[in-house]
């Protein structure tokens, strides 16, 4: 997608038009940011005032017991809406920064832009597509069936390992690291599109320490299931090894996880999520920011209430 959405040459009229659109988006986001700031300050003041009133009122405890459920529910809804608004605002800012970068590459900073970069991204995209297809086929013909229909990637890894042992290890490492990278990118895409959690983007030369630590924790969290899945996927190649003894025997037959491994819950979920994600990205390949006008109107409505 980076290749399809690569910066293109623009004449003076196109530059002026796109610049005006970006300027409008910037002004709208600045206004939304100010409204969010005002709303938060108002809530903090109301919370302080209600706290002082509660301590001075003798019947405050009884009122809280009688009305606490309704107020607590409305407060939770307000907090949830506030978090959703913040996430939508961060998403819009992140996508705007990307658009500004692309606009600069196509206008002011075009001399510093490397046109070969998009072709490198195209090659990486094709390689990713090939690896994804190989993984899906391998899951269908080897991981899920019992007994396996075909060793598939195990045959390839064993053959390349017979040529030079290091090549077999590198092949397994490439497939495993691709799974790890896909998992991390998938989490970020889910957060960017569905706003399930706070965004922690990784940008070269512009990454906060909190974002870096979050992604490091995400890598560590995804490493164990990737290793477990890779052991099952390359069981023929890794037979008689310590990793098979650890993950293929000791962990696989733990009392709690035994049912999940025997029913192949994780593998089926992975395959279904892969198919669903592929279809979704085909239908909606580009990230679209939240409508800034709707976000602003919602904040203005909350401020009036």
Give the domain tally: 2
Decide which structural class fits the backbone.
mainly alpha
DSSP helix fraction: over 70%
Q: Tell me about the biggest sheet? A: none
On the 0 to 100 scale, the average pLDDT is: 79
Q: Unreliable segments (pLDDT under 50, ≥5 consecutive)?
A: 58-68
Order of helices and strands: HHHHHHHHHH
Shape: globular
Q: How far apart lie the N and C ends? A: 43 Å
How many beta-strand elements? 0
Q: Can you count the helices?
A: 10
Question: Which radius of gyration do the C-alpha atoms yield?
Answer: 26 Å
Query: What fraction of the residues are assigned to beta strands by DSSP?
Result: under 5%
Membrane topology: Multi-pass membrane protein
Subcellular location: Membrane
Organism: Proboscia inermis
Main location: membrane
Question: Features of this protein?
Answer:
membrane; 10 helices; 2 domains; mainly alpha; 305 residues; globular
Q: How would you concisely characterize the structure shown here?
A:
Keywords: Membrane, Transmembrane, Transmembrane helix. The protein is mainly alpha-helical.
Description:
The chain is an all-alpha fold and 305 residues long. The protein folds into two domains: 12-113 and 292-304; 116-263, no CATH class. Helix content is 76%, strand content 0%. It contains ten helices and no strands. The protein has helices at residues 12-56, 60-106, 116-143, 153-163, 165-194, 209-233, 242-251, 258-262, 265-283, 292-304. Residues 58-68 have low confidence and may be disordered. It is found in: Membrane. The chain crosses the membrane at residues 116-144, 164-188, 208-231, 265-283. This is LIMR family protein. Keywords: Membrane, Transmembrane, Transmembrane helix.
């Amino acid at each position: 997608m980076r290749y399809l959405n690569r910066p293109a040459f623009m004449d003076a009229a196109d530059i002026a038009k796109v610049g005006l659109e970006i300027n409008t988006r910037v002004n709208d986001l600045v206004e939304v940011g100010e409204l969010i700031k005002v709303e938060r300050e108002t809530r903090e003041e109301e919370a302080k005032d209600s706290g002082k009133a509660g301590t001075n009122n003798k019947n405050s405890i009884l009122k809280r017991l009688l009305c606490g459920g309704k107020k607590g529910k409305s407060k939770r809804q307000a907090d949830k809406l506030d978090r959703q608004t913040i996430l939508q605002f961060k998403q819009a800012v992140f996508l705007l920064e990307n658009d500004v970068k692309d606009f600069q590459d196509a206008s002011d900073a075009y001399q510093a832009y490397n046109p070969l970069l998009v072709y490198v991204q195209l090659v990486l995209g094709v390689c990713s597509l090939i690896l994804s297809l190989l993984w899906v086929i391998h899951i269908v013909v080897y991981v899920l069936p019992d007994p396996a229909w075909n060793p598939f990637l195990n045959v390839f890894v064993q053959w390349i390992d017979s040529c030079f042992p290091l090549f077999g290890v590198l092949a397994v490492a490439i497939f495993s690291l691709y799974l790890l990278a896909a998992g991390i990118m998938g989490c970020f895409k889910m957060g960017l599109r569905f706003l399930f959690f706070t965004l922690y983007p990784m940008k070269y030369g512009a990454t906060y320490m909190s974002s870096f630590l979050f992604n490091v924790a995400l890598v560590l969290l995804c490493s164990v299931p990737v290793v477990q899945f890779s052991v099952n996927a390359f069981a023929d190649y890794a037979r008689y090894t310590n990793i098979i003894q650890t993950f293929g025997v000791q962990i696989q037959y733990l009392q709690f996880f035994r049912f999940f491994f025997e029913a192949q819950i994780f593998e089926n979920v992975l395959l279904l999520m892969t198919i669903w994600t592929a279809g979704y990205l085909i239908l909606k390949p580009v990230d679209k920011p939240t409508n800034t006008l709707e976000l602003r109107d919602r904040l203005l409505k909350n401020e009036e209430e």
